[in-house]
Amino acid sequence: MIPTFFGLELALRALETQQSALNTSGHNIANANAVGYSRQLTDMKATLPYVISYNGKDISLGSGVTVASIERARDVFVDRQYRLEFTKGEYWVSRADLISKVETVFNESSEYSISGDLDRFWAAYNDLATNPENTGARSVVQGRAIALTDTFHYVAQQLDDMQRNINDNILNQVDQINLYAEQIKELNMQIKNAQIVGDFPNDLLDRRDNLVDELSKIANITVIEQRDPRFTDRMVNTYTLVIGSETAVPKQVLVQDQEATHLKAGVDANGFAMIQWAIAGTDLDLGAQKGLLLANIEVRDNYIPAIRAELDKIAQGVANAINALHQTGQGMVVETDGISLFTDGVTADTPGVLPSGITAANITLNQLIQDNPLRIATGAINAAGVVKSGDATVASAIASLRDGWAALTDMMGAGVFGAAGQKPLDAVSISDFYNAFIAGIGVNVQTADRMAVAQEMLVYQLAVQREAVSGVNLDEEMTNLVKYQKSYTAAARLVTMFDDMLETIVKGMGITR
Q1: Given a cut of 80, is residue 396 above it in pLDDT?
Q2: What is the CA radius of gyration of the chain?
Q3: What SS3 state is found at 63?
Q4: Any idea of the CA torsion for 83, 87, 88, 94, to the nearest 10 degrees?
Q5: What is the pTM of this model?
Q6: How far apart are alpha carbons 244 and 254 in whole angstroms?
Q7: 302-308-312 Cα angle (round to 5)
């Protein structure tokens, strides 16, 4: 027999379920512009039927509807692909930005650059070769040489400053990783507690996913989410975050459910931070071409040192080429032996020996010449140990270095610059070597820019796919509001109808007249 109030209970379930669906749509609309919000769906299912006996057999009678769950619209595969390409994109964007700043340090778009100073130095020496006894021309050469060394110093210092700034960024990023790990650990606790009691904590899940997205900017992050075998009657998951290389053995677990492992910044031989596990002290494998952190480390430890090494090679090559010629001559002050034009500012100048410790950071105009520009060599020392008046052989030879090594042919053959035939720089000229060096930096910038643009396009496409699944469509939600509102109205009409029926039963039946 069907209970008297069966119809009212059925209508009540319908009212409650449609009201829940209305609230869910309203929640979606309210968060339509919230960053990282996932559209929520009301999953309705029929309640257990009421079984009655009729004509000697059991018949199932529908008892209404209920809310089975309110779940997020998420595609785990798209999320994984998005984060994988996103972390690659952040790597290339950061790398492009950093090496572009390295290119800016050389300031080649301006006349105030190493190439500009070299041009002015050659021009000054050419003027001196025209009038070797002109003290004004000597002062100009002195000034141009000092300006050239100052520019080398400036570029070297800027590169050092960049390394230190990048190192500070790395330290901040390690702190961010640890902070995100702690926040995700706390959310894991809240989410699991909610799942244990049968809840679907969608907003907490969104917050956790947003933190993982932010974390994937810094380093490659892999999410491993599995069913907790301890709970077979409800959906309770274990949640693991693996950081860095996916092929590392053992897996580099950053967060394991309600436990977070911190990172620390050790110190390498150069005084820079190296990323390690806080407890074990072992190095973290960040993988390849993924994340801001790896881009910063690679530029700091590989790219900038390589640029510095080439810059030092240029400084040494310029000094060697000029010094080799300068030591063969004298200026207007008689020297016992020829002196170098450039030194490292520390090692004593030894005539006849090319200073070997010159770098971009320490290349210096010989102090003797700084004190007295009359010592700048212009003419060749003859057999008598003097320079013929008006001789500009050495000055002309040094000025000719702008275009090649012709003035150094005999010295190169004698192995002055290393092995027999070796040039001060492995190029047609000093300018050719430097221009190729700058062009190489430009190519690196262009390559990084192209990779960054390509990754941005891929990330955008995946973001669109992600939005198509998880984003709120206001037109759809408005349609759902109408649908649920009409269903709610129909359920309310059921209540009215069952009320009329009960009114008839209570007031009209069993009354004798």
Answers
A1: yes
A2: 39
A3: coil
A4: 150
A5: 0.89
A6: 9
A7: 145
